[in-house]
Design a protein that fits this description.
With 231 residues, the chain is of the alpha+beta class. It has two domains: 115 residues, DNA-binding pseudobarrel domain (At1g16640 B3 domain, Beta Barrel), CATH 2.40.330.10; 102 residues, At1g16640 B3 domain (Beta Barrel). Helix content is 15%, strand content 34%. It contains six helices and 14 strands. Strand 10 and strand 11 form a beta hairpin. The two termini are 35 Å apart.
Length: 231
């Protein structure tokens, strides 16, 4: 099952090697799908007004001159960049920190920017990202959502349902809130979800809301083996 609103995008897990480089390689599948749309000069825009012009190398499928962005936002590896293609030249860019939350964007003056930037808290325009570490016992069908994501769980009812999508596949997960410790958990459906995606302990799941709904999410996976190799 596909979700209703499709936006061409990709996400990139950032390694320390990426941060020490001036280039960022893009996913081959995304580049091939958008080969007729992507221009040689692109603009990356962050919600605080930060804009950066970067060259796109079509032959090698990479952005150049990314080092300034890594330095400006203090990226060191372990973060995730989400690129949303607006048109062939413009991308919206979101930065997810190691804690799984989209970072608070401070005002960063920078000489190569096309416009001035201002400080922005992610909560001023809505919650967008979260990750869970799959460390549950294989027979458990319950995952407790960390309290750091209370801004999201406050939007759910005491008993609720969320839909999670990856490509044409979808899963229905049951949400339940407990008075004790103000705890919110995924109470049902997680075993099927975990088995279908072949998740292992230490894998990171990035859940991204879609269709402006707190009950519909797209999921992307970063495998534990990849993270360990990158560190």
């Amino acid at each position: 099952m596909d979700y209703a609103t499709f936006v061409p995008d990709f996400f990139k897990y950032i390694t320390p090697d990426d941060c020490s480089s001036n280039d960022l390689f893009l996913p081959e599948k995304f580049c091939d799908m958008q080969q007729d749309n992507l221009k040689e000069n692109c603009i990356l825009t962050i919600r605080n007004g930060y804009k950066m012009h970067v060259p796109y190398d079509r032959n090698n499928r990479k952005f150049g001159e990314m080092g300034a962005l890594f330095r400006d936002f203090g990226l060191a590896g372990g973060e995730v960049l989400i690129f949303e293609l607006v048109d062939g030249r413009n991308f919206n860019l979101y930065i997810v920190g190691e804690d799984g939350n989209e970072i608070d964007y401070s005002a960063i003056p920078q000489s190569c920017q096309a416009s001035s930037s201002c400080g922005v808290s992610t909560y001023s325009t809505g919650w967008k990202f979260v990750k869970f570490i799959t460390n549950a016992h294989p027979t458990d069908d319950e995952v407790t959502i960390p309290v750091e994501f209370k801004s999201l769980t406050d939007q759910w009812k005491k008993k609720d349902i969320i839909m999670v999508y990856k490509g044409r596949f979808s899963w229905k997960l049951e949400i339940k809130k407990a008075r004790e410790g103000n705890r919110t958990s995924i109470k049902g459906g997680f075993i099927q979800f975990r088995n279908a995606l072949q998740l292992d302990v230490g894998d990171c799941c990035f859940f991204r809301w879609i269709n402006e709904s707190y009950n519909e999410f797209r999921v992307e996976i970063v495998k534990a083996a990849f993270i360990a190799h990158a560190e």
